[in-house]
Amino acid sequence: MSAVDYDIIVVGAGAVGLAFAAAAKQSGYSLLVLDSGPLPQVDQSRYDLRVNTINLASETFLKSVGAWDGVISKRASAFRQIRVWDSAGGRIAFSADEIGEHHLGHVIEADVLNVSLLELICQQEQTALMPEVQLESVEHDQGKALLYLADGTSVSCRLVIGADGGNSTVRTSTGIKVSQSHYGQRALVAQVEVSEPQPQTALQAFLPSGPLAFLPLADGTYSIVWSCQSALADELLGAAEAHFEQQLSKALDYRLGDSRLVSQLVSFDLRRLQVESYFANRTVLAGDAAHIIHPLAGMGVNLGLMDAAVLSEVLLGMDLANAQQGSGLYQALRKYERWRKAANTPAGFIMDGFDFGFRHPSKLVQGVLGTGLTLTNRMGFVKQEIIRLACGLSGDLPALARRV
Ligand SMILES: Cc1cc2nc3c(=O)[nH]c(=O)nc-3n(C[C@H](O)[C@H](O)[C@H](O)COP(=O)(O)OP(=O)(O)OC[C@H]3O[C@@H](n4cnc5c(N)ncnc54)[C@H](O)[C@@H]3O)c2cc1C
Fold first, then answer.
1. Is 158 helix (H, G, I), strand (E, B) or coil?
2. What distance in angstroms lies between residue 253's CA and the mean position of ligand 1's atoms?
3. How confident is the model at residue 311, as a pLDDT?
4. Better pLDDT: 168 or 372
């Protein structure tokens, strides 16, 4: 068997790649994490516009790997309530008290999460970091994977983890097929100040144009994610600031009073993507490289973090040298694929169902959904189960995400 530079190379130092590297520290494997971008930094003077809601399962996972204190010491905002309504008058409210918890989740900037994970990885002797190096292609040869980099060099390993996001080079290079479709929507993202804040409360309106979320930040401002049809998104992006603010306040039905932009307004094209298989040869995919879902419930990175936790669990103690069908490694990767497909695929369909249903032009469909929301709001047990599921307190969790 030919020699390799590393046991595992993780391509992508986003939350998912870094979380895997942090979780794999007990495995004893030698690891390289490489990324085309520079290492992230936290700028305390302004918020990173890429903001995620982190649920209780992800919180437990981050505590288990030792990254949570770093997150909290930098900047995070706990929310205790979520208020949801639609255009047909349906409404539902979720509260942490209903499930006996202190909070339902935290709003955390991407840089804060990534830097906290990075701080841990820098202390791991067996993990090397290579920023600002772009992967161009992966080849498999005689029991190893060869990664060709844009600077003309190459590195080899026994197993490649593709955590390189939605446009994954690892995925295309390995020939893993995807099914994907565009929502015809763009998500407008910004930080706003409001005249009537509701502390520790996230708000979500299902509008005919698409869902609008207001996520509370630590300084009393909000991060907004307004997913709307591309034509409306273009119109709002091109509008004067005052017009945008007016439309935003109106879309939220003035429930937080008037909104005022305190950051740039940026936009993301929204698409849905699922891979046919999570691994091939000596390559395995995690996070957005394997699945992208609608951001309406803020689940994307939470699913990716669970991928990282499961992958580190199934790979523990594996002989990485033998990746043939039937080998221990092959079986571990099959287990990872079955485990995570069972969670990620339905999550994608559920988000699509919400998006399709609440934007449906039929008043009847809208009425049924609105009534469904209001009725569910009165069903204590059903509601508790929904909250527990959304917070990641039920379902088949990996050991690192399970509470002791
Ligand atoms: C508008 C919006 C709002 C969202 N809100 C939420 C939310 O509230 N909660 C939530 O859970 N999720 C949310 N998501 C989803 C979440 O942002 C993603 O699921 C998450 O960032 C994916 O993380 P990742 O580590 O898989 O990929 P990424 O964060 O995309 O990281 C991939 C990394 O790979 C690197 N890379 C890519 N190609 C190469 C290459 N060829 N060579 C080397 N490096 C490479 C990139 O530089 C990057 O650092 C939202 C998404 C959107 C669009």
1. strand
2. 31
3. 98
4. 168
Selection from 326, 291, 327 nearest residue 307 by Cα: 291
Best mutation site among 36, 49, 77, 340 for ligand 1, i.e. most ligand atoms within 8 A of its Cβ? 36
* CA angle centred on 378, ends 96 and 227, rounded to 5°: 65
Could you count the other beta carbons within 10 Å of the beta carbon of residue 38? Answer: 9
What residues does 187 pair with on adjacent strands?
227, 268
> Which is the closest atom of ligand 1 to the Cα of 302?
11
CATH superfamily of 6-76+106-180+271-359: FAD/NAD(P)-binding domain (3.50.50.60)
For 306-318, write each residue's pLDDT tens digit.
999 999 999 998 8
Ligand 1 test: best mutation among 35, 147, 215, most atoms within 8 Å of CB? Answer: 35
Interatomic CA distance for residues 225 and 213, integer angstroms: 5
Boundaries of every domain in the chain: 6-76+106-180+271-359
For residue 92, list its beta bridge partners: 84
Q: Would you say the CB of residue 189 lies under 6 angstroms from ligand 1?
A: yes
**Which three-class secondary structure state does DSSP give residue 26?**
helix
Mean pLDDT of all residues in 45-49: 92
What is the dihedral sign for C-alpha 293, 110, 308, 303? negative
Measured in angstroms, how far is the CA atom of residue 211 from the centroid of ligand 1?
Answer: 20
Element (H, E) at 91: strand 91-95
Q: Output phi, psi for 324, to 5 deg.
A: -70, 155
Between the CA of 14 and the centroid of ligand 1 the distance, in Å, is 6
**Is the overall model pTM greater than 0.70, yes or no?**
yes
Coil, helix or strand at residue 183 = strand
Q: What DSSP string runs through 196-247? A: S--TTEEEEEEETTEEEEEEE-TTS-EEEEEEEEHHHHHHHHHS-HHHHHHH
Nearest ligand 1 atom, CA 168: 38
